[in-house]
Amino acid sequence: MTTHDVIVIGAGVTGLTAAWRLAQAGQDVLVLEARERVGGRLRTDVLDAAGAPAPFEIGGQWVSPDQDALIAILGELGLTTYPRYRDGDSLYVDRAGVRRRFADDLPLAEATQAAITELTKKLDELAHELDPAAPWDHPDAERLDRTSLRAWLEEQCDDAEACDNIALYLGPAMLTKPAHSFSVLQAALMAASAGSFSNLVDADFILDRRVEGGLQSVPLALADRLGDRLRLGQDVTRVDWTDGGAVVHTADEQYAARRVVLAVPPTVVRRVRFTPELPAEHRIAREHQSFGLVIKVQAMYPTPFWREDGLDGTAFGPYQLVHEAYDNTPAGESRGVLVGFVSDVNADRVGRLSDAERRERILDSLAAYYGDQARHPIAYVESDWQHQELTGGAYGTSFDLGGLTRWGRVLRAPVGPIEFGSSDVAGLGFQHVDGAVRVGSEIAVGILAAG
């Protein structure tokens, strides 16, 4: 058994950031990762596309201008970014299946657009009132947390299409759950974590840039710096702890440390047995969090044919199987790539189909935006994190109704020598890689300050 200052469990961005900051400060750190790779919910696969290799980012991939922590670590690691393609018109498909082009506002009836503007204003005001690090401290937090986003929208507005579009951004597009299943407070936290709800609905803001080589370059670069302080294929099954330290068990090894950082999603904490057991409140809090469901789909074509039609590739349709899609062509790539998303109840439905049936349905939905050419990709890739035990869904975890005010403050609270953290429990950058960097850095600062 080896002994260390700190053991970090999980080699996603949170764990690797914490480990690297601690190592920079002279701490003896060991990172244990159950998978045979680093990155957690970040992964880039190079796959064959009609006889030529092509990179596909399977998990998170975008960088927005408000993500200061992520941007700073990209600079520190020497990683470069490039802008998402956005020259031309975007597309919207309405409830009747009619496709319309637009340049600025969605092509909706004047009354519907006015209703969306008013709902956006109200959500911006609510997000501004909220501290994303402590949303439960809002003076009306309990009522907001007992009210579903869908119910709140229908209380505020009687325009169904306006409500459906606002629900799209916070439900399928962000929390990847139906809008009736999470609270207004949870929705406001999502908005506050990005600076405002207006930022979330602005694709040119929230999906601004990508990292050359893929966003997994961040954990890969951190892992390279940590060197032999990182061990893969080490699935932690048990942690025995006292106030003075802990012993971490894998199938074949034991490791001792003064402090332990459990840098995994809240739902994954339950895979580990603790002796003594964690306080009941910690267990219950994590039992009331869950991942949303989303299938990320990428289709590659011989050329980015939509550009020839004066389109930027951005498409929305709250009534479509693929509720949003974008030009996802990597920098320097002559072939064209579209990325689309199938979320929440739609992900349930197509998840029950055969691979061939699901692909056909999804490509049909892409064709509703881009025409028949979208049905004939030279490569097609689905990312479905719900079938991976060590993740269980995407993009991040959130509470059911009433859960955020009851248990939210527990998730970052240490237990003895054990710290907990991931992007799921971030304030700013909630559910994003930026949040993972922030949480990892905050954990490291706290451990160093405690001595």
Automatic annotation (TrEMBL):
Q: Pfam families this protein is in?
A: Amino_oxidase (PF01593)
Which controlled-vocabulary keywords does the entry list? Oxidoreductase
The name this protein goes by in its record: Flavin monoamine oxidase family protein
Q: Which residues form the Amine oxidase domain?
A: 14-447
| Similarity comment | Belongs to the flavin monoamine oxidase family.
Needed co-factor(s): FAD
Lineage of the organism:
Bacteria, Bacillati, Actinomycetota, Actinomycetes, Propionibacteriales
The record's listing under Gene3D superfamilies reads: FAD/NAD(P)-binding domain
